[in-house]
């Protein structure tokens, strides 16, 4: 045991990397964010929504981190090992070059239950490079105390609710809370660091060079086997496949859940309060993910999500807001209480940091359309749904027929009161219309007379009250004049012909009001207050919806240019956060499923239109 190299919680002068300066690794249970400086500054164990172990991205001093980098000045580059989620960070110094290979082995059926392992292998590829590793966990979002001690050649970090073991082929030292290693590698040399969850049913074990090589090879093989299922052969294959690999990382293998993003409280505006926890299953987002993955040929993920729906979110489990909640935990739990963590300063001082999400208790009628559309597509492209699943669909559609005309909080989860949002009406129409299609195609029993009457009533309501003569466009909510980018879904959902004069007029109005250099704002918070302070960036899913709307309107040159421009806003690995700021910086939780699934859909449809 030795004195800690940094007696305070953080190295002097520690700064926050831009959100986009990170890559993502994971094992289909949790993920870690790895900065271009070699630091892991976000990791929750043992699952996506568990309390953090490393959270320096939310508080550079108190959050915890795992540094691994040269001790001398270095230029860095970061890339993924081709067709995998194995991340390589390269360092170029005056005397040599080295790289850190970061990955999390993916558990397979029959493998050791409960083992969650993060492996970092550092290799000197040219010359000589001195390295330092610093492992500074801060359990339970930096709130729980922990101890450090040696155990059978390992370093054991123990907190009241979680224990981790650190092993290395380099010599480890440790202090009161941290462990570290200083070592120099010559060309061809390597060192391995492995961080494992410890527990009563998990046998501690080291990670020698041979085992690290075995785990690396197996992890590469797993991701390449998975990606080989893709049927996409279009112009943007690299970006589409990176988006697919990212969506796969956001799936929780034990239940089939698909989370919206793996982080919490990364701000939509620096210094603002629009900081939310996205580590849960939004019915809408997950349903759209099913569509994108089915498009590419990944039916296994769609089947797993359908099992999640059947097992965990059958009709009747909503609490006063309809038969479904807006979101669920990755294990299907419905209770997601929102609280703030005042001891964390937030990314670059952007407080509050929140865990849990109060929007789970909102009424958002659009989720029924998203879910039933995904069920319809699954039945069409993958395999027929069961009789029990059809019974659930019928219950949902009957409820929609009775409640579609209620005001709700809407797709953007506003906290400024309920309104008669047009997008909610649109997706209620989708829910009923897709169920009618499914019943007709399969000859399934349904109250088709009632469903058709409700579908047609919703249609007429949208056309009559959702249209503004003054704006010459469909608008955000009934009786208003505010535009909303969610209306880009109208032709995508096949509600209106993409060349209908009313739609083309709406598309032009949206372009004038909400589009900036191919980037699309959701709406104008000044014109339509949403109950929150501050502004936000452009919303990337809306930007890709805009591309699709242009494609379907036959404006292919505009669509292709807008799409190519959007690709320039990706980070160095092809990843996107939720939003893009005025200077092109990524904002919000990272990476976001919504953005990547919409990229896949836009690329697919643009490719098809271009021929």
Protein described:
The chain has 611 residues and is an alpha+beta fold. Helix content is 32%, strand content 20%. The protein has 14 helices and 28 strands. The strands form eight sheets. Strands 5, 6, 7, 8, 9, 10, 11, 12, 13, 14 and 15 form an eleven-stranded antiparallel β-sheet that branches. Strands 1-2-3-4 form a four-stranded antiparallel β-sheet. Strands 26-27-28 form a three-stranded antiparallel β-sheet. Strand 2 and strand 3 form a beta hairpin. The longest helix is centred in the last third of the chain and has 21 residues. The protein is globular, with a radius of gyration of 25 Å. The protein starts with 21 loop residues before the first strand and ends with a helix.
Principal-axis shape equals globular
Contiguous helical run count:
14
Tell me the total number of β-strands.
28
For the largest beta-sheet, the strand count, sense and barrel status come to:
11 strands, antiparallel
Cα separation of the termini? 65 Å
Give the uncertain stretches in residue-range form. Answer: 1-13
Portion of residues within helices: 25-40%
Give Rg in angstroms. 25 Å
Mean pLDDT, as a whole number?
92
Category from helices, strands and their pairing: alpha+beta
The multimeric state of the shown protein is: single chain
Q: Percent of residues in beta strands?
A: 15-25%
């Amino acid at each position: 045991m030795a004195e800690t190299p940094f007696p305070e919680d953080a190295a002097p002068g520690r700064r926050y990397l831009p959100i986009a300066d990170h890559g993502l690794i994971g094992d289909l249970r949790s993920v870690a964010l790895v900065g271009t400086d070699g630091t892991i500054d976000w990791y929750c164990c043992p699952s996506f929504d568990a309390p953090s172990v490393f959270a320096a991205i939310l508080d550079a001093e108190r959050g915890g981190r795992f540094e691994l980098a040269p001790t001398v000045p270095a230029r860095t580059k970061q890339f993924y090992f081709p067709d995998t989620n194995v991340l390589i960070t390269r360092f170029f110094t005056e005397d040599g070059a080295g790289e850190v290979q970061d990955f999390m082995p993916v558990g397979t059926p029959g493998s050791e239950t409960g083992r969650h392992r993060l492996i970092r292998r550092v290799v000197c590829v040219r010359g000589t490079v001195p390295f330092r590793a610093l492992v500074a966990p801060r359990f339970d979002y930096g709130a729980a105390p922990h101890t450090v001690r040696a155990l059978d050649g390992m370093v054991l970090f123990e907190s009241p609710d979680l224990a981790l073991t650190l092993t290395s082929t380099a010599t480890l030292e440790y202090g009161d809370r941290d462990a570290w290693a200083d070592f120099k590698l010559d060309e061809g040399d390597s060192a391995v660091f492995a961080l494992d969850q410890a527990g009563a049913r998990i046998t501690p074990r080291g990670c020698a060079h041979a085992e690290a090589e075995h785990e690396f090879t197996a992890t590469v093989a797993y991701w390449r086997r998975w990606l080989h299922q893709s049927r996409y052969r279009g112009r943007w294959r690299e970006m589409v496949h990176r988006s697919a690999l990212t969506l796969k990382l956001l799936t929780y293998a034990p239940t089939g859940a698909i989370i919206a993003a793996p982080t919490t409280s990364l701000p939509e505006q620096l210094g603002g309060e629009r900081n939310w926890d996205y580590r849960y299953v939004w019915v809408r987002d997950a349903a759209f993910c099913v569509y994108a993955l089915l498009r590419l040929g990944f039916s296994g993920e769609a089947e797993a999500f359908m099992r999640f729906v059947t097992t965990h979110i059958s009709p009747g489990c909503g609490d006063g807001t309809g038969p479904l909640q807006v979101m669920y935990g990755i294990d299907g739990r419905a209770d997601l209480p929102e609280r703030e963590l005042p001891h964390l300063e937030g990314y670059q001082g952007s407080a509050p940091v929140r865990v849990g999400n109060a929007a789970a208790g909102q009424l958002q009628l659009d989720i029924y359309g998203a879910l039933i559309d995904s069920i319809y597509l699954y039945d069409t492209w993958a395999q027929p749904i069961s009789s029990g699943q059809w019974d659930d669909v019928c219950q949902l559609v009957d409820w929609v027929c009775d409640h579609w005309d209620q005001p709700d909080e809407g797709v953007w989860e506003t906290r400024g009161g309920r309104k008669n949002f047009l997008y909610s009406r649109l997706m209620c129409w989708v829910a009923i219309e897709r169920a009618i299609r499914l019943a007709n195609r399969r000859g399934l029993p349904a109250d088709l007379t009632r469903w058709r009457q409700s579908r047609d009533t919703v249609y007429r309501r949208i056309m009559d009250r959702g249209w503004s003569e003054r704006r010459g466009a469909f608008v955000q909510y009934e009786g208003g004049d505010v535009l909303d980018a969610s209306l880009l879904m109208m032709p995508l959902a096949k509600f209106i012909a993409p060349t209908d004069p009313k739609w083309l007029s709406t598309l032009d109005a949206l372009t004038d009001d909400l589009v900036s250099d191919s980037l699309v704002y959701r709406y104008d918070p000044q014109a339509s207050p949403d109950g929150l302070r501050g502004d936000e960036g452009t919303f990337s899913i809306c930007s890709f919806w805009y591309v699709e709307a242009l494609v379907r309107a036959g404006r292919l040159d505009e669509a292709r240019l807008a799409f190519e421009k959007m690709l320039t806003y990706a980070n160095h690995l092809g990843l996107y956060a939720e939003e893009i700021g005025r200077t092109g910086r990524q904002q919000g939780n990272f990476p976001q499923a919504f953005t990547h699934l919409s990229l896949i859909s836009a690329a697919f449809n643009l490719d098809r239109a271009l021929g």
